[in-house]
Batch of 2 targets.
Target 1
Amino acid sequence: MDLLPCQEDAGLRSLRAEVLQCVPAGDGFDSVLSRTPMYPEGGGQPSDTGTVGGAPVLSLRRREDGAVIHHLPAPVSGTVDVEVDWERRYDLMQQHTAQHLLTATILERTGWRTIAFHLGPDRSDVELDVPALADTDLGAIEAEVNVRIREAHPVRVRVTDREHMADLGVRSRRLPEGLTGPLRLIEIEGIDLNPCGGLHVANTAELQALKLLGTERISRGTRLFFIAGGRVLRDLDRALERDRTLTRVLTCGTDEHLPAIERLVAERRTTDKALKELRGERAAAIGRDLARTGDPAVAFHSPEADMETLHAVAKAAREARPDVLVLATGGDLDGVFLVAGPEERVAAAGPEVARILEGRGGGRGGTFQGKASRLDRRADAAILLGVVQRVP
Ligand SMILES: [Zn+2]
């Protein structure tokens, strides 16, 4: 398969071309042009985006005969200008070239092989055939890659045939099945030579910087995440923006952010504990007050009460008077309910209460609890249990 214009010159941003073919296909039109600056997906690098005659390219693919199919929302004809979304493409070229340099540097320093590569929209990764990487190794690798970026090594395309590949000291001998024709090699001068069909910057200096972001254990080794080029500055911008926001919200300088957050977390823990104790005490006081009425059955409801509160109310009431039957509910229309009291009475009344409140529940040993969807009928349930309706 012949090399595409962008594989000859990755700096090509636009071309004027003739439309050779344009036919309806799926939700749009498939068109073939006399030439194109666009790169269809391959070698781990995603397809380009851009426009043909001003229309956005929806997708790109390469036909078996090598023709690039541009899928467009509208038909095109005659002479058209084809423009690559250069900002996106250049970013992809930076990440892809950074991967070559990272892979070669890791192999040289440690002997670890890259077994896969993913170029993501926010960060990329290489999969290495080792179970774990030490922080010191990562630091040394990152430093070495950045030295090589500053050394400004030219990155070139070399075309050869398969027979000569072994003589050249090519890093990877693994080639796609059924590949014929000339072999395209990417050389980082003095560092690496590897077959690749993708697009690369012309010099390591164009990578600006590389930052390793961390690792993740995977079944066949370790995934190492990285960013390079414009993404380093973009992520730094995002981090600085977060800093500014934190400075505003916490009303303290950057160095004070962490102690301030630790203080807030500790205070919150103390407050939560105190609040829980107060709620428990309040629920117990309500339970004792209900028992003190002397009624054989009593009811409690609060829109805010959770199941824990209902249990605290019932427990306090029954400690004050073991024979009292308690109906406790919490929530608005949807919520929780609890029937607590003498075992036999609860066993009989619990399912009835669940039916009235259109809920589900269960229990044993003097409690029956569950969720309900019609807490507005709690007065009916109270009547069933024999709760005396008190007029305030
Ligand atoms: Zn490549």
Target 2
Amino acid sequence: MKVNYKKFSTGGYEFKDFKGNPINKVIDMEIPQTLTIPLKQGFGGEVSVIVKPGEYVKAGQIIGIDKNAISSPVHSSINGIVEEIKTIKHLNKEVNAVVIKSDGTKEWQPLEGHSREWNKLSTEQIQKLLYMSGVTSLDKSGIPTIFKSSVISPEQVENVIVYGIGTEPFNISLSVLLQDERKSQFVTGLKILKKVMSNAKFYLAVNKKNSKLIQELNNLLFDVDWIELYALPPKYPLELDEVLIPTILGKKYPYGYLAANIGVIALSMQTVTQVYDAVVQGKPLIERTVALGGTGWKENVHMKVRVGTSIEDITSLYLKEHESYRLILNSMLTNKSLTSKSLPMDRTSSVLIALKENKEREVFSWLRAGKNKDSYSNAFLCSLMKVSNKSCDTNIHGEYRSCISCGFCEDVCPVDIIPHLIQKYVKKNMLDEEVIDYGIFNCIGCNLCSYVCTSKIDVAKDIREGQEKLTKDECGRDTIVEPYFDLIGLKEFKNL
Ligand code: SF4
Ligand code: SF4
């Protein structure tokens, strides 16, 4: 198979050599005494609870389902007794959750109909296994099946992109995810997905620096003619659908909509391994591999955690003591700091980051050498020399300053707009046609402009505020982002 080497032409930034990157070690976390399982996890709406307090449930048993709305079933991830059903704040939304007290056993109930001979299963049987396992709720558009698991049907999928590029400062390790026999299981997962989305062409996007993995996958896929392998630079935000799809397919992305609305499904490599687990081993989505990133951990291991395990269960065992740490889930660039440690890990969790909370400001920080800092500009010595142990901290490094029109935000912006210009329009409340023409709605919220800003301006936040004002009709306009070509699954998307 030919390996396609592609560049990432517009903007982007490579986060290199940060201290606290997850190492290739996996720990099976003990099952906590109590778990809280949100009834909305991943793609789709909240499901209706079908168990009652006092009821005994098995790990893998469905505890919430709604076949009439776009969603996927939710399972108990442990064996035990339902203690209560309560409303919790989960990822900035109020959702119902089921609290289950463990009986201490580890076994799980396999899905009915799974088979090692998956090829002999009908497409409908495979789709049922995917839906009943909950795997269909993974990633940004879900996986289409005969059930209401995505906004389009499997026949409408034209392209499937599977990615494992690792573009954030802290990433789950592909060597861990695809260890030993997991590589061939991953390839089987791809073949299962091809059976479901048979009209689709498949693309595999891998970090070009991981040449060993590229070679191994190439060898395993030698007889497959429906997949293309792409080697891409680990530049942030290449793993966001809005950037990945134009880069690989050369297709325009409809900002504000789902990839599924243009017939594309983008899936992470972990999702594909869980497709294998569901169909071949009958394993429901009750567990995730989560990497511990950042310098706040005693060891930067990967952990297998049951869904519903609280962040506190993890920090009490692995967080360093005597210091205060900021915790962030999944993405350091796009997610906010966690305000509560009671938040449960769900089926979308992949990286838990801990950064030392540094309360003091470094005055005139830009004058300092900063050998271990990361800087886009030449203000820090680190930009001129090779540094292999950069540290992420929460210090704002200097005073806030006015925009100096350095243009760095423009250099890194992956969607080719002028962030500092749009930000100035928003700050002056000039929210009119002009700012729309400048592409305010093309901003995908990657936050890279804020990261590189020499003056510490939160450019992305200001742009987001401008978008919100415009969409909330605070400027006397109707809604703004109109699709510029026919989108599929639009009615379903609007009902989400
Ligand atoms: S947040 Fe928006 S404006 Fe800033 S770099 Fe990303 S896409 Fe561009
Ligand atoms: S990076 Fe900051 S200072 Fe430089 S042009 Fe953009 S907003 Fe202005």
